[in-house]
Automatic annotation (TrEMBL):
EC number per UniProt: 1.14.99.60
Subunit composition and interactions: Component of a multi-subunit COQ enzyme complex, composed of at least COQ3, COQ4, COQ5, COQ6, COQ7 and COQ9.
Any one GO cellular component localisation term in the record: extrinsic component of mitochondrial inner membrane
Protein name per UniProt: 5-demethoxyubiquinone hydroxylase, mitochondrial
Domain of life: Eukaryota
Catalytic reactions of this protein: a 5-methoxy-2-methyl-3-(all-trans-polyprenyl)benzene-1,4-diol + AH2 + O2 = a 3-demethylubiquinol + A + H2O
């Protein structure tokens, strides 16, 4: 009889050591009635403790944004062609990536919602709710910095939903292996972008804000990755193969989105 060694240790990825104090799931998010994002999801209200809150609808009891915050969220500074290229790629790829994440969790939620595993359904729902904040923020950033969205939007929606639903049909562990692979690539990708932003940029408040938002979202993805590992992603059938295929697909999608 074949036996399988449970793989419960997380691979030592360098960016995992970065501070993990932030989590988008500290409290259930509240959503703006009737408002929807470009990924066809609800728009969450701002949580004042998070950098991205300045891009989200403010709750009634929130203090108004300061003049500096309004500048940071509505103006795009003049950029050199090189700086422009960096900002364009960051925002286009991240908006597309967050669209994909929303549709992966939508697909997983649709499948788990049909079954009796309420715990996994709730875990997937919570991660999806975190992704709603990400896409709502990038919808604002893409307008603010006048970045062209990817032309591959409809393709990514269909592929991401299929990936989410397909892995959920294979079971909870396969769904979590999908989350682990995707969030690892996206987390590393956010980290690479943060390095790109270390190049010289104009002294405009939108740039440090973008840096804070990317840091917040990278930490959210790290939290999703940890959730997947805690929920037995590494015990999925054909884990190594599944992870390699999904991570490879994500990297290809990122490269395609940078260009198209
Ligand atoms: Fe995300
Ligand atoms: Fe995520």
């Amino acid at each position: 009889m074949l036996s399988r060694t449970p793989r419960t240790l997380v691979r030592p990825v360098a960016w995992r050591v970065i501070s993990r104090s932030h989590s988008s799931h500290a409290a259930p998010p509240a959503f703006v009635p009737g408002a929807s994002t470009s990924a066809d999801t609800e728009v969450p209200y701002a949580d004042a403790t998070q950098a991205s809150s300045v891009y989200l609808p403010q709750p009634k009891d929130a203090s108004p944004l300061t003049a500096e915050q309004i500048r940071a969220t509505t103006e795009s500074p003049p950029l050199t062609p090189r700086q422009r290229e960096i900002i364009d790629k960051i925002i286009r790829v991240d908006q597309a990536g967050e669209l994909g994440a929303n549709y992966i969790y939508r697909g997983q939620r649709a499948v788990f919602g049909l079954g009796s595993d309420r715990k996994t359904t709730q875990i997937v729902q919570d991660m999806w709710d975190g992704e709603k904040k990400h896409i709502a923020t990038f919808d604002k950033l893409i307008t603010q910095h006048d970045v062209r969205p990817t032309a591959l939007y409809p393709l990514w929606k269909a592929m991401a939903f299929g990936l989410g639903a397909g892995t959920a049909i294979l079971g909870k562990r396969a769904a979590m292996a999908c989350t682990e692979a995707v969030e690892t690539v996206i987390g590393e990708h956010y980290n690479d972008q943060l390095k790109d932003l270390k190049e010289e940029f104009p002294g405009h408040p939108s740039i440090p804000l973008l840096e804070k938002v990317l840091t917040e979202f990278r930490d959210d993805e790290l939290h999703h990755l940890d959730t997947a590992v805690e929920n037995e992603s590494q015990q999925a059938p054909a884990y190594a193969l599944l992870s390699a295929i999904i991570a490879g697909g994500c990297r290809l999608a990122i490269e395609a989105t940078k260009r198209v």
